[in-house]
User: Fold Peptidyl-prolyl cis-trans isomerase from Plakobranchus ocellatus.
Amino acid sequence: MSVIIETSIGDFTVDLYTDERPRCCLNFLKLCKIKFYNFSLFHDVQSNLVAQTGDPTATGRGGESIFARLYGEQARFFDMEISPRIKHTRKGLVSMVNNGSGMHGSQFFITLAENLDYLDGKHTVFGEVAEGFEIIDKLNDTFCGEDNRPHQDIRCALIG
Assistant:
């Protein structure tokens, strides 16, 4: 299954690992369906590392899983799906962000470089960019402040 991520700098397509990461993909797809990600900022862009989005507060501390909408605050986050088989080995991988407690909510990032193996076991890869690598390169080349926030806002216009 694939989704198109439309951004203010162009569009790219992500193929999801629905068989290997069913819970992460379900969470992501359901959040897409309710338009949760629409107008989200890429709030943390670290050149040759990652570009992070999916936080409605754009602080890196917000967001929630779809399960919170279904089951309440106790389900704000869900357990990571870790498999040693899928690693952060190349540019364009899409991963759920670990909230610091081994849990995921809504935030995700796209890898902007290869061989980021130190992310393995900490964040769950659930897809990969299939088309639009020039947009990933634009994200990587974005001018950012010391806090890694782009000087010019880059937003997800629509994910679906």
Observations:
- The longest strand covers residues 124-131.
- The helical segments are 22-33, 66-71, 133-140.
- The chain is about 15% helix and 30% strand.
- The beta strands are 2-7, 10-16, 44-46, 50-53, 78-79, 93-96, 103-104, 108-111, 124-131, 156-159.
